[in-house]
Amino acid sequence: MADDYQGRIGNLIRDARKHRGMTQQQLAETLGTSQSAINRIERGHQNLSLQMIARIGAALDSEIVALGAGPTHLRVTGPTTLTGSIEVKTSKNAGVALLCASLLNRGRTTLRKVARIEEVNRILEVLASLGVQTRWFNESDLEIIPPAELDLDNIDETAARRTRSIIMFLGPLLHRSDLFELPYAGGCNLGTRTVEPHMAALRPFGLEVKATDGSYHARVNPLVEPQRPIVLTERGDTVTENALMAAALHPGTTIIRNASSNYMVQDLCFFLQKLGVDIEGVGTTTLRVTGVTEIDVDVDYAPSEDPIEAMSLLAAAIVTKSEITITRVPIEFLEIELATLEEMGFHYSRSEEYDAANERTRLVDITTKPSDLHAPLDKIHPMPFPGLNIDNLPFFAVIAAVATGQTLLHDWVYENRAIYLVELNKLGGDVKLLDPHRVMIEGPTHFSGTEIMCPPALRPAVVILLAMLAAKGTSVLRSTYVIHRGYEGLAERLNELGANIETFRDI
Ligand SMILES: CC(=O)N[C@H]1[C@@H](OP(=O)(O)OP(=O)(O)OC[C@H]2O[C@@H](n3ccc(=O)[nH]c3=O)[C@H](O)[C@@H]2O)O[C@H](CO)[C@@H](O)[C@@H]1O
Ligand SMILES: C=C(OP(=O)(O)O)C(=O)O
Question: What is the ipTM of this complex?
Answer without folding.
Answer: 0.96
